[in-house]
Write a structure and sequence with these properties.
By secondary structure, this protein is an alpha+beta fold. The protein has five helices and ten strands.
Length: about 210
């Protein structure tokens, strides 16, 4: 009987650990909405854009203003996709908004600057075959970090918990890259940590991407 109880306990722990590795419902919904936006843009589907944007609005995403870019120079988002519901609304009516993408991104960063929320997002840029690095602090407990690129984009993600000197790196298709990446970080609950997030563009073209977190 004790042996059976031990087996059940181990299985329960495995189940809990597996569950903990999955993004929260709010973060996953935002990831799914951004992936749907990416697919709609790639397919040129106006109806797809509307539906994906409706899903994004329902996520009640806040600006990820705790993210700080470490690069000396940040390329403009003009000409690239911005993962923001106002940008998408304008895009549905007029594709010329790509020319003013940077303006939309800056406006999104100023919208609802409260730090309270369940999910945060920020659209960023990276040059072809280059990396860009962001810091995130203070964070504690379970932290989800996801990246979704615009169409034709591929990235690899490396995250360094500098406070506790622990790495969370992609291990699959590192040189090729993926259009989306997700990591779950089990940070200490009792103290704040500083994260360094490095996104590497594995393609030759400049791309925009969104960083999503909780």
């Amino acid at each position: 009987m004790k042996y059976k109880n031990l087996i059940l306990f181990i299985l329960l722990c495995i189940g809990i650990e597996g569950w903990a590795q999955q993004p929260s419902q709010e973060v996953q919904a935002t990831i799914d909405a951004c992936i749907a936006l990416r697919a709609a843009i790639g397919a040129g589907s106006t109806e797809g854009l509307k539906q994906a944007n409706k899903a994004l609005k329902a996520c009640d995403v806040k600006p990820f203003n705790l993210l700080r870019c470490r690069d000396e120079e940040q390329p403009s988002l003009n000409g690239h996709f911005v993962f923001d519901h106002e940008f998408v609304d304008s895009l549905v009516n007029n594709r010329k908004v790509y020319k003013f993408a940077q303006r939309y991104a800056e406006r999104a960063a100023q919208r609802g600057t409260s730090s309270s929320g369940k999910v945060f997002a920020k659209t960023c840029m990276v040059k072809g075959k280059k990396s860009t690095t962001y810091t995130l602090a203070p964070v504690k407990g379970v932290q989800y970090i996801a990246v979704v690129t615009e169409p034709m984009g591929l990235v690899t993600l490396r995250i360094h918990d500098k406070t506790n000197d622990k790495w969370y790196n992609d291990t699959d298709d590192v040189n090729v890259g993926h259009s989306s990446r997700v990591h779950t970080l089990n940070l200490p609950k009792e103290k704040n940590s500083l994260l360094e997030i490095e996104i590497t563009n594995t393609t030759k073209k400049d791309i925009s991407f969104v960083i999503i977190g909780n």
